[in-house]
């Protein structure tokens, strides 16, 4: 109920009559203020005329007046600048520290607003607002989706900056760990991030010109060179696998030289994975990318288009992996095991674009942020249950920028029932059946 009161106040959806405080003073809302999602009053810097006097300050909203005391606001200095208290049930007076009464306004959502909100919350269809969305203008849909695109990239930027802080504020390592995480393609994402954080890039840099040594460190740190683990997981004897034996010997040397500690092999998931997505293949691809110095931030920052990024991120594998998916496994049909276009799309969407945007924010270089958005618009739209759901509601994706917007909308608004913060939800809730009936007449 309190959220709905926030919504009514924010959008000034008031009864068609003059508003009065509990003391009978007329209330005129000039500006409802800025909705505050952090600590402190609910709305900041509101402008309200009370009894003809203009007040500028904060507005607090509760279901009952007594919630003011229940929440401890009477003992919190952050609420001393409250100019108006709003509640649907005025069950007590609220004094200022000097003893004078705080102005209070009794406010209830209009019946049709509450009815629409209840209908939206209870709806079983997906998206819940489908009936309204299909009738919205392309301009309104495009405007909201553009905001969602930026919101998603801002969210990704926060994640990348947090990761950078954990990694000693090193951008190259942040690039490597972010890329590795997305080579897990969801199922092994957490495992790849854990593995990447264990890889000593400073040590690897001394052996970057030798692909075999890089593979030894990468596979060793992944816990995949443990003979028993490899046997138990893949049910294949590896004692006769010359490549595995050489890697194992090389890693033991590197492990002692650089005091390395591998991650446990148990972190890797193989169930419901296609062989080309096995961790062994992805690590071999990452080793080749690292060896060829493609995991390089300066080269990434110089990539101007989607195709330049794909050229940078396209990878191959060493000869052994042309015919294997795991160590000592039955040989596969010979293939270079390059990344597919779909995989390159996902790498660009989930790694390259967010990194460009985050680095642009960090350096205050708007051109990098604009390039990130432009590249996202060059990538084909994603085909998943979210894009199909919204297509059924009449919202068509033109590019990955649109599909990312819909993913943000679904995960951050639809699924957690944040309809009151959504522009589509706003259009649904504000429908007035009475006005519609008048128009029909």
Distance between the ends:
33 Å
What's the overall geometry? elongated
Averaged pLDDT: 91
Please tally the β strands and state the result: 7
The helix/strand class is alpha/beta
Largest sheet: 7 strands, mixed
The Rg value, from CA coordinates, equals 29 Å
The number of distinct helices, counting runs of at least 4 residues, comes to: 20
Q: Strand fraction band? A: 5-15%
Low-confidence stretches: 231-235, 435-441
N-to-C SSE string, H for helix and E for strand? HEEEEEHEEHHHHHHHHHHHHHHHHHH
How would you characterize the overall build of this protein?
The chain has 441 residues and is α/β, with parallel strands linked by helices. Among the domains are: 2-109, no CATH class; 172-349, no CATH class. The protein contains 20 helices and seven strands. It has helices at residues 2-10, 67-70, 111-122, 130-133, 138-166, 171-183, 189-198, 201-205, 211-221, 227-234, 242-258, 279-291, 297-302, 306-313, 341-363, 366-378, 385-392, 400-414, 423-429, 433-440; strands at 19-20, 26-31, 34-35, 43-50, 53-64, 82-89, 104-106. Strands 1, 2, 3, 4, 5, 6 and 7 form a seven-stranded mixed beta sheet that branches. Strand 1 (19-20) and strand 2 (26-31) form a beta hairpin. Helix 6 (171-183) packs antiparallel against helix 15 and helix 15 runs antiparallel to helix 16. The longest helix is centred in the middle third of the chain and has 29 residues, at 138-166. The protein starts with a helix and ends with a helix. Residues 231-235 and 435-441 have low confidence and may be disordered.
């Amino acid at each position: 109920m309190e959220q709905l009161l926030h919504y009514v106040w924010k959008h000034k959806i008031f009864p068609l009559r003059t508003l009065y405080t509990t003391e009978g003073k007329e209330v005129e809302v000039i500006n409802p203020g800025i909705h505050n999602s952090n600590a402190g009053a609910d709305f900041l810097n509101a402008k309200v005329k009370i009894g003809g006097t203009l007040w500028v300050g904060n507005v607090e909203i509760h279901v009952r007046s007594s919630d003011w005391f229940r929440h401890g606001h009477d003992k919190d200095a952050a609420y001393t600048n409250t100019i108006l208290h709003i509640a649907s049930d005025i069950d007590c007076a609220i004094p200022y520290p000097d003893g004078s009464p705080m102005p209070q306004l009794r406010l209830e959502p209009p019946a049709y607003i509450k009815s629409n909100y209840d209908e939206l919350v209870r709806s079983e269809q997906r998206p819940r607002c489908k009936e309204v969305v299909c009738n919205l203008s392309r301009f309104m849909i495009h405007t909201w989706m553009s905001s969602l695109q930026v919101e998603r990239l801002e969210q990704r930027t926060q994640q990348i900056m947090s990761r950078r802080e954990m990694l000693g504020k090193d951008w190259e390592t942040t690039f490597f760990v972010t890329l590795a995480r997305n080579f897990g393609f969801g199922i092994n994402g957490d495992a790849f991030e854990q593995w990447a954080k264990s890889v000593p890039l400073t040590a690897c840099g001394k052996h970057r010109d030798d692909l075999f040594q890089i593979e030894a460190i990468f596979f060793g740190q992944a816990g995949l060179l443990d003979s028993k683990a490899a046997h138990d997981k893949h049910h294949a004897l590896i004692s006769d696998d010359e490549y595995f034996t050489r890697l194992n010997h090389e890693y033991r040397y590197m492990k002692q030289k650089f005091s390395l500690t591998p991650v446990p092999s148990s972190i890797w998931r193989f169930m419901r994975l296609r062989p080309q997505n096995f961790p062994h293949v992805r690590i071999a691809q990452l080793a080749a990318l690292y060896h060829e110095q493609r995991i390089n931030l300066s080269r990434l920052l110089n990539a101007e288009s989607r195709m330049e990024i794909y050229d940078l991120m396209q990878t191959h594998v060493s000869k052994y992996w042309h015919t294997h998916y795991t160590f000592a496994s039955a040989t596969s049909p010979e293939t270079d095991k390059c990344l597919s276009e779909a995989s390159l799309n996902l790498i660009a969407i989930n790694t390259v674009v967010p990194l460009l945007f985050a680095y642009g924010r960090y350096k205050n270089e708007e051109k990098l942020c604009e390039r990130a958005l432009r590249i996202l618009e060059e990538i084909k739209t994603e085909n998943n249950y979210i894009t199909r759901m919204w297509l059924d509601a009449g919202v068509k994706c033109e590019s990955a920028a649109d599909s990312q917007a819909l993913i943000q909308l679904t995960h951050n608004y639809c699924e957690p029932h944040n309809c009151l913060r959504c522009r589509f939800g706003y259009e649904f809730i504000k429908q007035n059946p009475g006005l519609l009936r008048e128009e029909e007449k």
